[in-house]
Structure formats: structure tokens, C-alpha cells
């Protein structure tokens, strides 16, 4: 009950009952009167979670919170975190466990003490963190105004690939009206891309060096499809048209 004593948020008369409730929440109600050295390491970690919740904090920082826990207890702790988020609280979690990272609403990847661009990390999952950090440093932002087309590419060798990070791109020929959303990777050299133009809110892209991207997508040297994901034939969206096109 020391955290509650220190912060003086709960009255002395209510502190014991709150401590017992928190221990029950993490499955330790039967160990309430045990000393730390008398319980297992995973149980000590669960107790640390309960202690962190003692004063109902708005922000909870968890460093590998399930590292020493069995799978059932780990799921229990992640359930507690999900409940806290639903209540409007913020949980910042540091982990190497990809399964845990999938529980989060936002993931930040750190490599050698530096943040990897979020869009780059999402577009190339499973790649070496050092390669993603290098690609982040080489990326150049590009904003297209509404109905603007991708820049013309005159040098195939130096032509970048584009990663769409915001807004939409539309086709004006083969798939009229079909939108590409965030996460699409576009090759401006492919004939399919001739008619791509930005939507009503414009489009934000990252220009990525082709020589760096291709080995990440196809380490065996396979050919690169022009767009990821490819649109399905026959789908349409909206009635936006580029300048000069009849509606």
C-alpha cells in the first residue's frame, strides 16, 4: 500500500480494500500476505502491475510487462490494459513480442535508439530494423494537391517508388474511380500508373529509393507488381475525375 501512502489519494481506511481488489484483479488474492521472496518471479511481476494501478494513473508505462508470465496470466494483464484504454487512459508499452504489439492501437519501432518512420515500418513488416531505419532516413515526403498527378519520371534508373501515407490516389483509365489508400506502394514506371491522381483532399506520399525498396520486397529478385494492393476489377468508388476528363 506504499504507493497510496505516498500519493495520499485514497483514505487510510480504504487502502487495504483497494490493494486486495487490485491483487484479485491480477489473480494474486491468495498471496496477499506473502513476502516478495516467497512468491515466484511471474507473481512478483503481476504484483508490480497491481502496484502500478494503485493510484489510478492516467498514464501507465509498462516495460516488457508479460516477460516472465505464463500465457494465461499474460492475456489477463493485456485484458487489464485494454480495459484501461477503454476508460480513456494511456498505456505505453515497451516490448519485443510482436504478438503483444498487435494488441496496440499505435506501434512505434525503435532501431539503434532512433524512431523508424511509422509508415515505412507498417509497409515492410518483418524486415530488419536497421534496413527500415536506413530507408526512413532516405525517404522524402511528397504532397500532391487535389487532382494532381504523380510527377513524371524521366530516368528509369533513378525513378523512386512511392508509399502512400495519407489521402487517396485514384485511377483515371483502367480502373476509373477506384481509390488507393494508405499503405499502397506505387511504381510510377508501370503503365498502370499513368492515370493516377490525388483525391479531393490531396495525397501524401513518401518517395523511396528504388534500389533500397526492391530487395526488401523481393530478396530473390522477382519482378515488382505495379501497385500494392492491386485493385479488383469492376470495383469503383466516387465520381472524382482529373482535370479535363468528362464526368
Short description:
The protein has helices spanning 2-7, 12-25, 41-52, 71-86, 98-101, 118-123, 129-138, 210-217, and strands spanning 59-63, 90-94, 110-111, 114-115, 140-144, 161-170, 179-180, 185-186, 197-208, 227-228. It has 247 residues and is of the alpha+beta class.
By CATH, the architecture of the largest domain is named Sandwich
Query: What fraction of the residues are assigned to beta strands by DSSP?
Result: 15-25%
Number of strands: 10
String of helices and strands: HHHEHEHEEHHEEEEEHE
In DSSP terms (H or I, runs of 4 or more residues), the helix count works out at 8
Q: Which fold does the CATH topology of the largest domain refer to?
A: Jelly Rolls
Class of the largest domain in CATH? Mainly Beta
The end-to-end span amounts to 69 Å
* Category from helices, strands and their pairing: alpha+beta
Number of domains: 2
Name the CATH superfamily assignment of the largest domain.
Jelly Rolls
Low-confidence stretches: 226-247
> Would you tell me the overall average pLDDT?
77
Largest sheet: 6 strands, antiparallel
Q: Looking at the structure, what is the overall shape?
A: elongated
The whole-angstrom Rg is 25 Å
Fraction of helical residues: 25-40%
Keywords summarizing the entry:
Jelly Rolls; 247 residues; disordered C terminus; alpha+beta; 2 domains; two-stranded parallel ribbon; 8 helices; 10 strands; Rossmann fold; 6-stranded antiparallel sheet
Amino acid at each position: 500500500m506504499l504507493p497510496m501512502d505516498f500519493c495520499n489519494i485514497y483514505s487510510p481506511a480504504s487502502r487495504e480494500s483497494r490493494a486486495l481488489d487490485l491483487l484479485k484483479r491480477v489473480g494474486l488474492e491468495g498471496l496477499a500476505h506473502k513476502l516478495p521472496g516467497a512468491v515466484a518471479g511471474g507473481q512478483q511481476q503481476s504484483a508490480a502491475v497491481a502496484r502500478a494501478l494503485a493510484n489510478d494513473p492516467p498514464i501507465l508505462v509498462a516495460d516488457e510487462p508479460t516477460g516472465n508470465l505464463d500465457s494465461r496470466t499474460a492475456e489477463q494483464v493485456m485484458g487489464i490494459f485494454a480495459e484501461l484504454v477503454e476508460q480513456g487512459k494511456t498505456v505505453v508499452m515497451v516490448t519485443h513480442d510482436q504478438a503483444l504489439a498487435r494488441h496496440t492501437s499505435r506501434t512505434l519501432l525503435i532501431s539503434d535508439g532512433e524512431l523508424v518512420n511509422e509508415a515505412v515500418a507498417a509497409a515492410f513488416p518483418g524486415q530488419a530494423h536497421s534496413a527500415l531505419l536506413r530507408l526512413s532516413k532516405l525517404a522524402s515526403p511528397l504532397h500532391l494537391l487535389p487532382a494532381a498527378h504523380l510527377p513524371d519520371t524521366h530516368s528509369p534508373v533513378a525513378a523512386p517508388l512511392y508509399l502512400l501515407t495519407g489521402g487517396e490516389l485514384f485511377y483515371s483509365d483502367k480502373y476509373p474511380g477506384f481509390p488507393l489508400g494508405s499503405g499502397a506502394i506505387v511504381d510510377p514506371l508501370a503503365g498502370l500508373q499513368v492515370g493516377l491522381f490525388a483525391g479531393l483532399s490531396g495525397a501524401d506520399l513518401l518517395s523511396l529509393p528504388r534500389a533500397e525498396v526492391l530487395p526488401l520486397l523481393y530478396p530473390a529478385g522477382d519482378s515488382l507488381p505495379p501497385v500494392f494492393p492491386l485493385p479488383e476489377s469492376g470495383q469503383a468508388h466516387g465520381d472524382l475525375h482529373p482535370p479535363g476528363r468528362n464526368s
